[in-house]
Amino acid sequence: MKNPIGIMVDSLRLGLSDGLKKAKDLGADGVQIYAVSGEMDPANLSPGARKELKSYIESLGLHISALCGDLGGHGFQDASANAAKIEKSKRILDLAVELGTKVVTTHIGVVPDQTDERIYDTMQHACEELGVYASGLGAFFAVETGPETAAHLKGFLDSLSTNGVSVNFDPANMVMVTGDDPVQGVVTLKDYIVHTHVKDGIRLRQADPRAIYGSLGYQPMTHEQIAEDASAGSFYRELALGEGHVDFARYFQALQDIGYQGYLTIEREVGDRPEEDIANAIAFIRKFR
User: Is the pTM above the cut of 0.90?
Assistant: First the structure.
């Protein structure tokens, strides 16, 4: 497979400028950058600063695979908070297009099991508005996989009238949280995938995704349950590529089979040697080429 390789700049933990240089040194084709706060907050980037950043990234021979616009909290589950979040997401989409990418990735919150729940409706309305806005820019608002099965996420996406809401496919999240099969997930979501993360991990024990990601109105555990949970250890563990339960040979083949030509962007959220881990991840991906 000849897909370009990306690096989540924030995974390098070097700051933006040094992170971009290191990504180039490591041999990446592109980068994904958080654009929520600090120097990458759209509110903090003047038109001139945007042009300078785009020019600098291009001078390194890099492209931006996507911006990350994850606003945290419960995603778009809370109607009272959505107006501000939608507005911020639109500004991140504007920034993405100005910097030369069409993709903004995010978590929208755990999609409820029942389609007639108020939260489901609230999330639909938010995603509908953002999807229409993204489509108007020729861009995509990409939901990251993990909090729900691929089939359930597809049902939610199918309920929208716009193709501006799409998928950032993270195979490790599926393995670690829902126990879903990433290979089948690629097939299920093939019409929506516009960006991917390359990450690995294992599921240590079954858990309600709401206990991991949080969810509006989800009842917190009792003190006894918290104590029991702590003694049992974590629900999952992120591992270096090839050490977890993602079958990358089958996963990469599935992406090839659906004709995916976009980025394979390395995300490393744990560990104390991110540069080494990411260098090894690039070598790991290249073994499949």
Answer: yes
